[in-house]
């Protein structure tokens, strides 16, 4: 078995280590964030002092937005398969702009695609518009999380329009945001995937080449060439989610005409006062309110209700107004019992909402 080395999670360091791994001259590595707390989680999950499992080029640590971070083993073949399938779907190789952290899978795969295309990636420093203007590739791509897209639609619209495609991942893209981007002439493509699938493997509802989708009682199963090899030093957990070549995700969805629609996580349906409440539906309804800029809805353990539905909202409306607004379209029993107004939702470096931080504030 080979050993694992830790490399700084900066774009230059990760690109250098990744290039060497992809051409066969380097050794497996794990990128480490500069933030001390995040670095400690990575080192714990990556366990560099322990023998490394076979079929691994990179170990990435999941963000831990809803649970314990895990070390995900990604092979050279999986990384390259994901990059090639992305280029095939988008219309061919191109130059990529990196506006994300390279120690999460979305950022790492921007670098992998750049290596595969043989073109230097452009690293976002401060100005998105200036970074976009410096690109020289015939085809121009980038990837970002929904929060970034929403921000750049307000501040850097012309730069967004200059890209042949912008892949949106890391979190579900709200329907109003999709509509805003389309109306503005921005080619934004929602992607579904995760670290375990080597980044996005379903674009605009359609699996990339080499990826198959199935459902098991509503749970999304994924099979294909981009899948991870397992969890670092967690064979029992690997066996739970990798079965007969299929990865059992924690997400629910349905297929219509071969197109996948993700409707939430397996644990996104909670029982509150004896009533099943679908949290993503409540969240989607809140985001339709004209004075709600952002929102997330979570279930909080409660002695009286079993689970209390709590909405964390960026916007002006108060609790009663939002409860009435939800009840206009959904059962009144689904309306959030508490509404916490915030200036902004706390985010992890991966671009996902820090659910654990929100829950800690209301328990």
Task: Describe the 3D structure.
With 363 residues, the protein is of the alpha/beta class. The chain has two domains: 5-262, Rossmann fold; 273-360, ANL, C-terminal domain (GMP Synthetase, Chain A, domain 3), CATH 3.30.300.30. It contains twelve helices and 22 strands. It has a seven-stranded mixed beta sheet, sandwiched between helices. Strands 12, 13, 15, 16 and 17 form a five-stranded antiparallel beta sheet that branches. α1 (11-22) packs across α4. The longest helix has 15 residues, at 76-90. The N and C termini lie far apart (45 Å). InterPro entries: AMP-bd_C, AMP-bd_C_sf, AMP-binding_CS, AMP-dep_synth/lig_dom, ANL_N_sf, ATP-dep_AMP-bd_enzyme. Residues 282-352 form the AMP-binding enzyme C-terminal domain. This is O-succinylbenzoic acid--CoA ligase. Keywords: Ligase.
List keywords for this structure.
single chain, 363 residues, alpha/beta, GMP Synthetase, Chain A, domain 3, 2 domains, 5-stranded antiparallel beta sheet, 31% helix, ligase, AMP-bd_C_sf, O-succinylbenzoic acid--CoA ligase
Fraction of residues in β-strands: 25-35%
User: What Rg is obtained from the alpha carbons, in whole angstroms?
Assistant: 20 Å
Quick one: CATH superfamily of the largest domain? ANL, N-terminal domain
- Which range best describes the helical content: under 10%, 10-25%, 25-40%, 40-55%, 55-70% or over 70%? 25-40%
CATH topology type of the largest domain: Rossmann fold
* Strand order, sheet with most strands: 6-5-7-8-9-10-11
Low-confidence stretches: none
Domain count: 2
Q: Could you give a short account of the major beta sheet?
A: 7 strands, mixed
Total helical segments: 12
The first-to-last residue Cα distance is 45 Å
Using the 3D structure, state the CATH architecture of the largest domain. Answer: 3-Layer(aba) Sandwich
Structural class: alpha/beta
> How many strands in all?
22
Mean pLDDT: 93
Q: Identify the CATH class of the largest domain.
A: Alpha Beta
Cα shape: globular
